[in-house]
Hints:
Blueprint: H1 2-14, H2 19-36, H3 42-57, H4 67-71, H5 79-89, H6 94-106, H7 110-123, H8 131-153, H9 162-178, H10 182-196, H11 208-223, H12 231-243, H13 247-260, H14 269-284, H15 290-307, H16 310-323, H17 325-337, H18 342-348, H19 358-364
Helix pairs in contact: 1-2, 2-3, 3-5, 3-6, 6-7, 6-8, 7-8, 8-9, 9-10, 10-11, 11-12, 12-13, 13-14, 14-15, 14-16, 14-17, 16-17
Amino acid sequence: MATIFIRMDTLLLQARSSEKQRLPGFNRMVNLLKELSKSDRLYHKALSWAYLGIILERQSSFETTPMAIHDCGFTGTEPLDCFTKAIQLADNEPAVLNRLAKLFQIMGKHEMAIGTASMSLDVDPDHVTNVASYHTRARVHTSLYMRDLTRCKQGSSTMPERSLLEKAKDDLDQVIKSTPSLRAYMDLGQVCYYMGVDAIKESFAVNEEWINQALIYFSKALECDLGSILPELQLLRGKCLKVKGEESNAVECFKRSIEMERDGSRNSQAFRWLLETYILWYCQGGPMKRGAILNEVDTWVSLVLNKFDNRSITSEIRTVSHIYTHELLDLCKGTIKEGKISLSRLCFSMFPTTVTDNQSYTESTD
Length: 366
């Protein structure tokens, strides 16, 4: 029940709902967690303190502190103290520590997640009975690498440490030994991909053996249940094939990824990779004639505009325009000459319709 309330409050926060809408559920949540903290079951008791820490972090989103915090005796309680108490209660209990580590991972508390998972492994280092700790720690290390890589691309940080990928791979190797699964194969394949590719531009391989290994893991993921219908898997395969120079195969993977995505999805990366490939083919020559490329571009731009969230598509086209400014302009000119204007309309959508309208400007730059 507490999980449901927290999820509901998260959705209301994301929707920028008013305090009046959030307050009743927030107060009920605090009262529920106070009762849960008195439970005789260690699992419930430890989790209640972790959830309470998350809730207390959100009290600053209200103009005044919700009364339930005062009524339940949590006035002045620091969220970090709640997290610490949860970890102390779970000491020497791998199952509880694993649940806390997973919760911290989901909430983006990476250092706490790694520390809690490591505590669990100190108690039970067996990769068969305690595989969850290895997998959680691996995913956190991968998330830290991806976070630092994104900051590096934005110019606000240095290159991420390769040791994060190495640590993730070591943990995922233990996961594969005991419980091979779709998620494990995809995570390990992704780690191998970034170990073998030029991380900044992802345009060429620095170690093709790692790229080949990634493709092997992705092929094993395809054999798992649901592997054949995951768009993320097709995107990862396409990126590996593009780096290897097999661009025609990569294009097919990007197309499958787009087709598999649900309507209204914001996961539109495959479109960006597909468009970048067509841009390079159009400007530098490729396996298709220019006329055929223009037809393909118009067809897929029209498709994604009806399939994905418009703001997501605008963000992708903005990224492409920054990297391939002149090449994208040449492609737009080509489509206009052929009477195909879907790509040009999409490019114009990056700009605000009225500069004086602050709201429109904000929405167009989201």
